[in-house]
Amino acid sequence: TPASLHIFLLFWCIAACTSSSLSTIMTPPRTTTPTQNQNYKRKYLPEDADQAIVQTPYGRGLVVRPRRADNIKEIQLLEWESFAKKVSSPPPEPFMLYTPVEYPSVTPHIGDDVICQYGRGRITAISIVDMSPDKENKDCDKNSNTNTSSNDNGATPTQSPLKSSEPPQKSKPTPNQKPILKYTIALTSWRLSQTRKPIHVHLITPPPRVVRKHTLNEMDAHSRVSFAQHQKTLANAQFSKQKDYALALITYAGAVDAVRNVQHDHSSNNYVRADLVVVMVTCSNNAGMCCVHLKKWEEGRKFAQNALILLDALYQKRGRNIHGILNGEGLIDAKLFGEWRVKSYFIVGRCCLEKGEEDVASGVLKKGLAVGKVYLEEMGTEGCKCKSNLEKASYKSLLGQVKEIRKLMAECVERKKREKKMEKKRAVAMFGKGASKHAEIGSENVAKTGSLSTIKNNTEATKAEKSTEKQNLPLESAPNTKIDLHSLPKQD
Questions:
Q1: Less Cβ crowding at N or C end of the chain, within 10 Å?
Q2: What is the pLDDT of residues 451-491, one digit of tens each?
């Protein structure tokens, strides 16, 4: 009834008010001030710059941040799915472990990023150290031979007391004894100036700690160039050995994108800039060749045009530091501005030809042919002026590239002829045979004179000449016809 409904609503309101008042009375006031809360957030929000990968009882874990205030480590469990029950949908947030325990690092492998007492680096080799007694005695023999000294009177050198005549006793290795490993690490956190070669250190103890690899946004200029060079080697194998052009295109494009917007800082020198130019040009050209194989004409054209822009910029700065570094490392001008530019022109011409732009393709191919001829003439006929093996190799490759460009130019001319024939057939189908004949005559006259206006002028001139010749004919040469005297006009 309405009366009972009103009574129920009244009791419900009274109960809600009493519960809210009790909750406010029971909850204690906050003891932290706003400034303390801000400091708390600042202390716990930042993540560790070098996040270590440790071995936990639940699998591999990534130490996101260590809390220095309470000595707690926030560890993201990377292999929790293999230890926990499988769920239908993945969790929205990663599984975290909060512990004060200092877990050991995972076993380092070749290619892992590590941190040692000399800084951050990457493991390039791992070898087992031979600590057997035979090895120690051989080392002692070498030291004894090098440490012998001769007397002033010319006496023979005395033997070192380290060398013993008794045969060495081999110690039996215990089954639980672990082999001693030596790690070769290429440092990336610091390097020598005016060089690109990394510094290698060899460590036995303590073993390095494995850390998470840096992302592209966290890498400096040198690390980005090194990453692009590694991607290039992978893509070369995918292109030449595996013939997987789609995967090679993805890898080449990834290398180009890695160094596209490099921000140079104090760690990047002229050697890094020279490597950057080489990686950008070669990967762009190779990506263009992958697009040619995959028939992606527009993408291949863009890749090759990017390579041409870089090469033109380098050509304008000949004789400077980067150009001198490249020449000193074996990249001569015949390769930089000859082979690489001709290859770029070839890719652009091929893509334009396949897209139906024969005029653009012929112009681009003529530029590539001219560049190839210039460097071939500099090296003489049959490479007689070549002074080194590098020049001979570039001469042979340029010859092959020039032949390919000439074949492509011949194909371009044939396609133009085919298009003209197709146009004539269409004209015949639309207007009949007369239209085709007029079209042929008009095309021949246009080819000879160059324009239709000159053709009209010539035809009018020939008509005027014929009329004047007929008027000036003598009576003897006129044909034998009867003349009507009455038809002649009378004279006054």
A1: C
A2: 444 445 555 555 555 554 444 434 333 344 343 434 444 44
Rounded Cα distance between 262 and 274, Å, is: 13
Other CB atoms within 10 A of residue 350 CB: 26
28 has pLDDT over 50: no
Q: Which DSSP string do the residues of 173-216 spell out, in sequence order?
A: PPTTPPPEEEEEEEE-S---TT--PPPEEEE-SSPPEEBPPPPG
Q: Are 170 and 133 in contact (CB under 8 A)?
A: yes
> How far is 281 from 412, CA to CA, in rounded Å?
27
Q: CA distances (Å), 176 to each of 50, 179, 306, 432, in order?
A: 33, 10, 59, 97
Here the tokens at position 194 are 């005016």
Tokens 């020939």 sit on residue: 462
- Which H or E run contains 137? helix 133-147
Average of per-residue pLDDT across 307-331: 92
Give the CA distances from residue 352 to residues 293, 307, 320, 421, in Å, rounded to whole numbers and listed in that order: 14, 16, 34, 21
Token digits of residue 265: 């800082």
DSSP state for residue 318 in the 8-state scheme: T
How high is the pLDDT of residue 439? 53
Q: Are 162 and 139 in contact (CB under 8 A)?
A: no
Residues 6+ apart with CB under 8 A from 174: none
Alpha-carbon distance of 388 to 203, in angstroms, equals: 42
Beta-strand pair 96-99/209-210: unpaired
H helix runs in 27-79, sequence order: 34-44
Spatial distance between the Cα atoms of 72 and 66, rounded to a whole number of angstroms: 6
The pLDDT tens digits for 85-141 are 555 555 567 788 999 999 999 999 999 999 999 999 999 999 998 766 555 555 555
User: What are the tokens at 27?
Assistant: 């909850």
The CA R_g of the chain, rounded to the nearest whole Å, is 43
Alpha helices in 295-357 (DSSP H): 297-316, 321-328, 333, 340-354
CA distances from residue 449 to 153, 441, 455, 456, 459 in whole angstroms, order as listed:
107, 12, 7, 11, 12
Cis peptide before 108 (omega within 30 of 0): no
Residue pair 255/268 in contact by the 8 Å Cβ criterion: no
In the block, which residue shows the tokens 């007369």?
434
Residue 434 CA: distances (Å) to CA of 428, 431, 455, 459:
8, 7, 19, 20
Query: How many CA atoms does the CB half-sphere of 211 hold within 13 Å?
Result: 19
pLDDT digits over 145-160, tens only?
A: 544 444 444 444 444 4
Q: pLDDT tens for residues 260-315? A: 888 777 667 888 899 999 999 999 999 999 999 999 999 999 999 999 999 999 99
> Strand, coil or helix: what is 108?
coil
d(CA 330, CA 339): 14
